[in-house]
Amino acid sequence: MVEPPMKVSKEDLTDIEKSIGIVREMGTEIRQSLESYADEDLHDTAWEVQAGVEALEVFGSRWTIEILAALYVAGERRFNELRHLLNRISSRTLSDKLKACTESGLVERRVVDGPPVRVSYRLTEHGKVCGRLLGPLVAYMKIRNGAIIENV
Question: Is 105 helix (H, G, I), strand (E, B) or coil?
Fold first, then answer.
């Protein structure tokens, strides 16, 4: 668990929990809507599971979530700034993961002519939307794991 926990007001904690509840309800509605299109020949349960796994595949790779979280929270960063934000990542791994995130359309590599040439990385609009959609899940898990608590 992250120490020390962030202490927020009772009102803010209640608002965050209400927002998480709304997202949960929307998730149920989306699931029910898609379920109504299921058909045993083409879109059975196995198809749905595989489609879900493929949709989330990019997030399952080690270091990808960390890179996306760093760019979402900290904003555009240069390579070494990212490396310092991400404890224990090697330069080669960071380079490989940034390339994969760029190829998947989540991260944009920006080159500014120099001298010296400056290269930075930032989330694309797609990456920002994914961050916003994952935000409620992250908030839920922070509360669940005790990283966010009520300030009493």
Answer: coil
Pull the structure tokens for residue 52.
């879900």
Contact yes or no for 109/102 (Cβ under 8 A):
yes
Question: Which region holds residue 17: left if phi is over 0, alpha if psi is between -120 and 50, else beta?
Answer: alpha
- Please answer whether residues 1 and 145 qualify as being in contact, where contact means their C-beta atoms are separated by less than 8 angstroms: yes
User: Per residue in 118-148, pLDDT tens?
Assistant: 999 999 999 999 988 888 998 999 999 999 9
User: How many angstroms separate the CA atoms of 38 and 47, rounded?
Assistant: 9
Read off the pTM. 0.80
Three-point CA angle 74, 80, 81, nearest 5°: 20
Which residue has tokens 């949960």?
24
Q: What's the rounded Cα separation, in Å, for the pair 29 and 109?
A: 36
1 near 142, Cβ under 8 Å? no
Give the helix/strand (H/E) hosting 109: strand 107-112
Query: Could you tell me the CA-to-CA distances from 33 to 36, 37, 63 in Å, in that order?
Result: 5, 7, 33
